[in-house]
């Protein structure tokens, strides 16, 4: 079993839809949770960074963490074609003594006009 | 545009060539990283530098040789690569190596080994 599970998609939605992207994890030691957006032929761009359980909102994006269920989500409201990208969840594992990130496989999202 | 700059954007090299990838950041970050990313896969960690010293080598073959000349620069020297080394090479930085310091990535160098 992988430490982080993420549905690779692809996920195709119409413009304006609410998108829900999810990751589950097995290691309760994971402390920090991130969402990265990666456009084709570009590097990952940090979208959201959270620590505690609960919601964090930034514009059209909301990150949700449920540590008791080992589940994190990213919601995108009023999705736009420019949101079409691969979304990677990532979690920091403190066991290595450095900033070790464990990535999900990435979900490819396509928002069509 | 990202605050981590990588050059070149594209590189094609033969298996006998020697080349270098360069990375620069001016955010005052003291931790820098090299990642390798194959198509449709997440990034894989190669090296971690903390305060200009190599702190983590994830069992990377010696044909990849990292160097950190100062706190803003990170190089990856390449020699005698194999075609399977073709990938997107990503540089990243963070304020420090503690796990409460998120990584910021550059746009990568797309390497093709022929």
Provide structural commentary.
- The complex is a heterodimer of chains A (113) and B (114).
- With 113 residues, chain A is mainly beta.
- Chain A is built from no helices and 11 strands.
- Chain A has strands at 4-6, 11-14, 19-25, 33-38, 45-50, 54-58, 61-66, 71-76, 85-93, 100-103, 107-112.
- In chain A, the strands form 2 sheets. In chain A, strands 2, 4, 5, 9, 10 and 11 form a 6-stranded mixed beta sheet that branches. In chain A, strands 1-3-8-7-6 form a 5-stranded antiparallel beta sheet, with no helix packed on it.
- The N and C termini of chain A lie far apart (37 Å).
- In chain A, 35% of the residues are buried.
- Chain B is mostly beta strands.
- Helices cover 0% and strands 56% of the residues of chain B.
- Chain B is built from no helices and 11 strands.
- In chain B, the strands form 2 sheets. In chain B, strands 2, 4, 5, 6, 9, 10 and 11 form a 7-stranded mixed beta sheet that branches. A 4-stranded antiparallel beta sheet of chain B has the order 1-3-8-7, with no helix packed on it.
- Chain B is globular, with a radius of gyration of 13 Å.
- The model of chain B has no long low-confidence stretch (mean pLDDT 94).
- Chain A binds chain B through residues 8, 31-32, 34, 36, 41-46, 49, 51, 88, 92-94, 96, 98-101, 103-106, and chain B through 2, 4, 6, 31, 40-43, 45, 48, 50, 55-56, 88, 90, 94, 96-108, 110.
């Amino acid at each position: 079993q992988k430490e982080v599970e993420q549905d690779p998609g692809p996920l195709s939605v119409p413009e304006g839809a609410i998108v829900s992207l999810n990751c589950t994890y097995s290691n309760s030691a994971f402390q920090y949770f991130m969402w990265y957006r990666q456009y084709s032929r570009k590097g990952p761009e940090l979208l959201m960074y959270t620590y505690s359980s609960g919601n964090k909102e930034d514009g059209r994006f909301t990150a949700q963490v449920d540590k008791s269920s080992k589940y994190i989500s990213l919601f995108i409201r009023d999705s736009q074609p420019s949101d079409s990208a691969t979304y990677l969840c990532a979690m920091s594992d403190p066991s290595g003594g450095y900033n070790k990130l464990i990535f999900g496989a990435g979900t490819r999202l396509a928002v069509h006009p | 545009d990202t605050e981590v700059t990588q050059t070149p954007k594209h590189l094609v090299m033969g298996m006998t060539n020697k080349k270098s990838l360069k990375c620069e950041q001016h955010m005052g970050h003291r931790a820098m990283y090299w990642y390798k990313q194959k198509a449709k896969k997440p990034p894989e960690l190669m090296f971690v530098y903390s305060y200009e010293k190599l702190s983590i080598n994830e069992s990377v073959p010696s044909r990849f040789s990292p160097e950190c000349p100062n706190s803003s620069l990170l190089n990856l020297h390449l020699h005698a690569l194999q075609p399977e080394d073709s990938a997107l090479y990503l540089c990243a930085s963070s304020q420090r190596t503690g796990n409460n310091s998120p990584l910021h990535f550059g746009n990568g160098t797309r390497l093709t080994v022929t």
